């Protein structure tokens, strides 16, 4: 079954911004928006990964009583 199509309203400035980031002339707004969504998801996943690594290291330092890294955190 094919996805349903809907109509959304966008400000002309948003449409112009979408046009500016097209990878190729016939790229649809749907494709552009899906790329933006995927990029946002990847960025969120990377941020979560980095945060978990930082939390792990800070917990390790706190347990050892080493607070010397705070001035560079």
Question: How would you describe this structure to a colleague?
Answer:
With 73 residues, this protein is mostly helical. It has one domain (12-66). The chain is built from two helices and no strands. The longest helix has 36 residues, at 29-64. The radius of gyration is 21 Å and the shape is elongated. The termini are far apart. The mean pLDDT is 85. It comes from Ferroplasma acidiphilum. This is CopG family transcriptional regulator.
Total helix count? Answer: 2
Radius of gyration: 21 Å
Please provide the ordered H/E string of secondary-structure elements: HH
Strand content: under 5%
How many domains make up the 3D coordinates? 1
Name the structural class.
mainly alpha
End-to-end Cα distance: 52 Å
List low-pLDDT spans: none
Write down the overall geometry: elongated
Number of strands: 0
Please supply descriptive tags for the structure shown above:
2 helices, single chain, mainly alpha, 73 residues
Q: How would you briefly describe this protein structure?
A:
This is CopG family transcriptional regulator. The chain is mainly alpha-helical.
């Amino acid at each position: 079954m094919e996805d349903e199509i809907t109509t959304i309203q966008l400000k002309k400035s948003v449409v112009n911004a979408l046009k500016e980031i097209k990878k190729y002339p016939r790229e649809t707004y749907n494709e552009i928006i899906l790329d933006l969504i995927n990029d946002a998801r990847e960025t969120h996943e990377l941020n979560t990964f980095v945060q978990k690594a930082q939390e792990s290291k800070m917990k390790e330092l706190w347990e050892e009583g080493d607070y010397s890294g705070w001035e560079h955190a």
